[in-house]
Amino acid sequence: AQTVTQSQPEMSVQEAETVTLSCTYDTSESDYYLFWYKQPPSRQMILVIRQEAYKQQNATENRFSVNFQKAAKSFSLKISDSQLGDAAMYFCAYRCPPGYGGSQGNLIFGKGTKLSVKP
Amino acid sequence: DTAVSQTPKYLVTQMGNDKSIKCEQNLGHDTMYWYKQDSKKFLKIMFSYNNKELIINETVPNRFSPKSPDKAHLNLHINSLELGDSAVYFCASRNRGQETQYFGPGTRLLVL
How far apart are CA A92 and CA A90, in angstroms? Predict the structure, then answer.
């Protein structure tokens, strides 16, 4: 069964600095998707970035980038120039390939990392 | 304009009651999901559904049942509510061939 592990329950970063959130996963599939979602206190789940496993190039979205190491099954999120609005829970998620074990592409989440940003 | 909406946003009820949470998406997506987020913030899939197939996570009690009156709606019915059902429930949707799921704002359920 696929699992997603976020080993850092909490992280803290100084405003304008850079922080990296860790995520590892376990799967026997070769084609899949990985995501980072942000959940601020408002509770809304917001997609930050996604990575397709068959693409070697790391995804980037403005200040957010990933370090995808397929062989190591690692998918870390780097936030550059941290802002106060980045404070939130961050969830790493793996998407089951449709049809795998009857899946319709649901997400498997890690337990989250709570990020605090200090002014 | 909301892509995925849920009602109500908050639900407080007594043990043993039956309640429903509604979910609607106006994105034209063909697959919808229900996730449960427990008190420790852990998110877990409960159901996934398209217009042909319902897949139930085996750990979900049969007191929970999704009902889809049409392609744009997937409601969650909960019978005989228990204290452990207190959580935030998220609806999400996705279109076949696309990878991103869009989440609703969540419904916070508190069972007293």
Answer: 7
Residue A2 near chain B (CB below 8 Å)? no
What residues contact A64, with CB distance under 8 A and at least 6 apart?
A36, A48, A49, A77, A78, A79, A80
| Dist. CA A25–CA A36, nearest whole Å | 13
Q: In angstroms, how far is CA B25 from the centroid of its own chain?
A: 12
CA angle A21, A22, A24 (to 5 degrees): 155
Distances (CA, A) of B26 to B1, B30, B32, B76, B93: 8, 11, 12, 18, 10
Of B43, B55, B92, the CB nearest to A102: B55
Q: What is the pLDDT of residues B49-103, one digit of tens each?
A: 887 778 778 788 999 999 888 889 999 999 999 999 999 999 999 987 788 899 9
Q: How far apart are CA A19 and CA A77, in angstroms?
A: 8
Per the CB < 8 A criterion, the answer to whether B39 and B87 are in contact is yes
